[in-house]
Amino acid sequence: MAVTLTVMACATVTACAADPEATSPPAAATSAAGTDFGGTDIAWVQLMIPMDEQLLPVLDLVPQRSSDPAMTRLAAELRSRYTTEIQQLKALRVKAGLDATNPHAGHRMPGLVDADTLAAISGSGGTAEFDRKVAECLRGHLEQLANLARSELSNGTSASVKDLAKQVAESRTAGLAQLPASGAAPGVSGAAGGG
Asked: Keywords for this entry (predicted)?
C-alpha cells in the first residue's frame, strides 16, 4: 500500500519536487487507516486538501481585481464549493485515521498554487493581465484536479472517497468549460456557444 500511495501521489502529479523522506507516507497513516481506505484513497485525500486550500487566496482576489463578470461568478462558485469540499476532505482524513500533517508542504507540482504563483497573480499590472493570469492558474488547477479525481475513481477502494472524487471530476470539468479559451480575451467562454 505504501508503494501505491507514493506512486499515485508523485506519478499522477508528474512533478513532486520534495525530499526523499517526504515522498513516503507516514507509518501511522498507513497502519491507522480505516479498513476501506487504500493507499490511493489516502494519497488523494492528503493531496486534495492543500490543492483546494491553496487556491482560496486566488479566488478571493478575483472579485476585487477582475474585470470579467464570468470569471467573478466562477470564482464565487469555486470558493463556495471548495469551502464545503475542504470540510468533506478533512472528515475523510479523520475517518481514515490520518493526522493533519500536510505531506505535500513545500512541494511544487502542477495545479498546486504556491507562493510564487500567488505573488505573480497579485502583482499583475492591469485587469486584463490579472484576468489572464487567473485564467491560466485556474485552467492548470482544474485540469490537474480533474485528472487526480479520475485516477482516484480508477484506482481507489473507498466508496466515500470515490463518491467525492466523482463530484470533483464533474465540477472541475464544468469549471474548465466556463474559462475563456486559452489565449482568448476575458469574458469569452471556452465552451461551445459562449458562456
From this structure: Signal
